[in-house]
Amino acid sequence: MSARPTGAGWATGGTAGVLVALGVRFDYPEAVALGFCAAALLAFSSVWQAVGARIRATRVVEPNRVTAGRSVECLLRVHNAGSRTVPALEVTEVLDGRERRFALPPSRGRSTTRVHGYHLPTDRRGVYRLPPPVLTVHDPARLIRRRFATEGDTVIHVHPDHHPLTSPWPGGERLTVDGVAARPRGTGMAYYGLREYVVGDDSRYIHWPATARIGTLMVRHHGVLDTPGLFVLLDTTNLAVGEEFEDAVRVAASLAVSALRAGARLTLCTTDLGHVPDLGATPEARVTAVLDFLAGVEPSETVRPPRFRAPGAETATTVVVTTGPNAALSPGALVVRVDPDTTGPEVDGVLTVASSADFAAKWNNR
Fold it and tell me: N or C, which terminus of the chain has less Cβ within 10 Å?
């Protein structure tokens, strides 16, 4: 909390000194009087700030996770513990290196609490530290300003945008490690073998030929099919930056969110060995964890391994998202290459898209 002259305050003080000096030097009492008036006004502003507003403020940010392009909603609770009316407040917020200022209406009366709402726009994804807002109070003449700082930083996750996909798998099909299409069965069950009958087994599953041969009731043993998996590898080592890289992140986010909401196992990695530390227990918690991870992804100087496989990726459909020409990141993978120039010849196993929106359109029509 500090009180300092504003630009007008410095000008008033300087003018007061000049007028007094000139008035004394040239025997001009009117100039001296004007100088003392200016000095008195500056002194009044200083005293007003010293005995004036006593402000406490707390800020609540809800939600602290938003999609890029949307605004962060802030609620600022301002309590005036002083006995005087507080003039209009100026709130200063700094997000993503940019300063934003908001004017709040006066707070009247002692022990008055008011809640003010405002929005902080977000332009690009990232993980940002939102420092405490700074409240500035001016005296009635706006010669002295006093600043009040609240406490506590807030971490803001600005998630990449993602597009709805009809299926997380190419052409709506899950691919095995050999690239063969495998559609999950409607029953969700698979036949694994025979076992002896136990009380409570469904009689429809009795295998009569084996029962006649062995002499003991045998039933078909079924189990739940393995949950289909998707391995998404985001190439962060190419030199492409800016909107091309952002499109690649949005493509990875679209695939990951679609897979999680389809109930698939998801492995999401970057070529600098980054991965989601904890996917959470519920589907929405997993989606949030993935988007939090992608919010902080940045291009890396780490050398790309020539053939990258994550643990467990052998049993999952692999999709590599890259902005570069190298498609040999992972054996047997489908490569999604982000390149504004899509006029080149088509390459088997490579889907070239101009943007993330173009990817969604082509993916849904495969």
Answer: N
pTM check: above 0.85: no
* Cβ atoms within 10 Å, residue 52: 21
Q: Hey, which bits of the chain come out as E strands?
A: 2-5, 55-61, 65-67, 71-80, 89-95, 98-104, 112-121, 126-130, 134-138, 144-149, 154-159, 174-175, 181-182, 189-196, 218-224, 229-234, 265-270, 317-322, 334-338, 350-353
How many whole angstroms separate alpha carbon 43 and alpha carbon 49? 10
| 333-359 per-position pLDDT tens digit | 788 888 887 666 677 778 888 899 999
Is domain 170-180+227-364 given the CATH code 1.10.287 in the classification?
A: no
Cis peptide before 311 (omega within 30 of 0): no
pLDDT digits (tens, 9 = 90+) for 138-159: 888 888 888 877 777 889 999 9
Report CA torsion sign: 162, 311, 126, 286.
positive
Where do the domains of the chain lie? 2-51, 55-159, 170-180+227-364, 187-224
**Residue among 144, 142, 139 at smallest CA distance from 5:** 144
**pLDDT tens track for 162-207:** 999 988 877 655 444 344 444 444 344 555 578 888 877 778 888 8
DSSP letter for each residue of 246-270: HHHHHHHHHHHHHHHHTT-EEEEEE
CA 118 to chain CA mean position, Å: 19
